[in-house]
Amino acid sequence: MKRQNDGETALQAKLLFTEDCSRFKSHHRHTFSDVCVPCCGFRGSFCCFELIPSTPSPEQAALRARLLTAFAESDSVIISTRDGRWAIGYATVTAVLTGDNLPSFQSQAELPSLSDAVSSDPRVWLFVSSSSFTLPYHHSPLHQFFRIDKYKSIDTSLIAVNNLATFAAHIQASASTAPSQDTFFSQRGVDLNQNNTQMTYPALKRLREILIEGKPPRMACHYRSMEALLNDCPNTHSSLLRAVRALVSRCNADQTAAILHCFNSEDVAIVQGLPGTGKTTIITIIVLISVLKNQRVLLSSHTHTAIDNVLIKLLPYRWVVVIPSLADLPTLRIGDYSRLHPSVRQFHLSQRWSGSFDEYVSIMNDSLIVGATVYTSVAQFPRGVVFDRCIIDEAGQITEPSTLQVMLLSHKTLLVGDSMQLPPLVQSNNLIDDGLSESLLSRLEKAFPECAARLCIQYRMNKGIMALTNHLIYNHCLSSASTQLDSAVLTLSLPPSIPNWVATTLLPQHYVVFVNTDSCWGEKNHEIPSAVSSSHQNPFEAKIVENLVTQMVAGGMECADIGVISPYSAQVACLSTCLRKYCKL
User: Fold this and answer.
1) pLDDT tens digits for 312-331?
2) Which of 381, 350, 371 is nearest to 307 (CA)?
């Protein structure tokens, strides 16, 4: 079973208030105590849940900040009981209320029960509107506890099946039978009887030859050097060209070869980027060179974070005039606004679109850079919009059917990732046996190794950590960018009185240390199921981490230079409680 993320689930949501709503006005309000909260206009129920009580447990207190970032206005949620009755209601969040934002919701009534909520008040309330909410209790449901899950309306299996159907059912019409702009369709305003199967995708035939018939991707020799590639860019964008030349001058041989590999590709290219080798950097350069060539780029991945990381690297170049009438890089971001990095929300469609379809088409056509996950509906791309190149980051972690949609929207595809790291997450053993857990990047890399460029010079690890990684995973392909990086060690001033195990663990010459706690297993050292989630925690191991962090901070390390990770969200909450007095988390 897939574990729920604490930040996406509230398992102790107490129902404080509910009333029927039969108003169809799109903008109206309900009053709960002294709080006046907007409603979505559903005919159904309006409810208030308390997610964090006035006297929270340490785990609840650590969870508070994550819940505030997980739930936002307009989010869809699923309401369930805690005794196993799943999805008794689907609802829409109308407000998330804390002591910080309470004044903006207070009405003139000034009733007393919530008026004491100030910034120091730990409580968190979630207000929802639901058109289908059936309370299962014979007695009053008030003050009963419910489970609330953030609902992501993405059925990845359905998207994969739809991609396969599209890949198999559509045809690629010849230039004489189809206009050049009629390259693909969206369901928006298109009747199902209007020859939808005749609409074509720009690279459909070639992709079928590679993916089904096993023909190798085609490579040409358009550019033999970076100088030749940059000289082929128009001189109309001289300031951006100078910036790109400066970036290219800092590239190593592997990175330069990977960029040329991309622009010499006729259809599908692969870049295998080992850890710390600058995958995001070369994607940034490829995007900028594409803009210089007035080529449209679709940036995609299976996570918003991967897309946003590239867009953040592009931010310093946004004020370079690229196209007359545009003052910055013509960028459009599609997806759930609440899940985007704050720095790139300015590019989101909602910040530019007033609702007109013609305006929507204009925005899409004017955007040379479009960021969207592989799960984005094709209906969001107006008919006639074609990309010159699709770049799929972290392609080694995406199932092959999931990548098809964005590849079909583009003339050429660049797959960037590392097939030696995490494969696609597939929970069905039957599907794993059938090969779904192998990504397209991995399959093509094995079949056509000559069509893959590899980044092997890393800028992240010292020689000890790199040696372990090389030995266990990469067959000694990784190399270090500099001797200075090779010899990088912690700079600590540890007192002689610390325990031997701490001194051994933190010894700078010990690059990688495994701390085995099995000998301490017993009453103190054991896993505890979380009280507010389906995750697990181990307070004993959290105390070990706290001890090590304490000694590192006392030894002169900056908190910002210490990273603590865990695969369990409940353990992260436990660690946050232990380490809050030392570091700002």
Assistant:
1) 999 988 765 445 444 467 89
2) 371
Using alpha carbons, select from 395, 389, 396, 393 the residue that is nearest to residue 413.
389
Q: How many other β-carbons are positioned within 10 Å of the β-carbon of residue 156? A: 16
**pTM more than 0.85:** no
pLDDT digits (tens, 9 = 90+) for 265-309: 999 999 999 999 999 999 999 999 999 999 999 999 999 999 999
Structure tokens at 110: 């000034």
Q: What is the pLDDT of residue 533?
A: 52
To the nearest 10°, the Cα dihedral for 92, 94, 98, 101? Answer: 150
Give CA–CA dist 460/332, Å, rounded.
31
Crossing angle of helices 569-579 and 539-554, rounded to 10°: 40
DSSP 200-230: --TTHHHHHHHHTS-PPPPB--S-SSHHHHH
Supply the DSSP string of 72-119, one letter for each residue: -TT-EEEEEETTS---SEEEEEEEEE-TTTGGGTB-SS--STTTT--T
Q: Name 236's Cβ contacts closer than 8 Å, sequence gap at least 6.
A: none
Task: Say if CB 533 and CB 11 are below 8 A apart.
Answer: yes
The β-bridge partners of 132 are 90
Angle at 167 between CA 165 and CA 171, to 5 degrees: 110
Is the sign of the CA dihedral 35, 40, 42, 47 positive or negative?
negative
How many Cα atoms are found within 13 Å in the side-chain-facing hemisphere of 290? 31
| DSSP label of 170 | -
pLDDT at 194: 39
With beta carbons less than 8 A apart as the criterion, state whether 254 and 457 touch. yes
Among 219, 230, 216, residue whose Cα is nearest residue 265: 219
Spatial separation of the C-alpha atoms in residues 118 and 122, rounded to whole Å:
9
HSE-up of 125 (CA within 13 Å, CB side)?
A: 25
- Residues 175-223 pLDDT 10s: 444 433 333 333 333 333 333 333 457 888 899 999 999 999 999 999 9
Judged by DSSP in three states, 27 sits in coil
CA triple 296-299-303, angle to 5 deg: 165
Amino acid identity for residue 69 in this structure: T
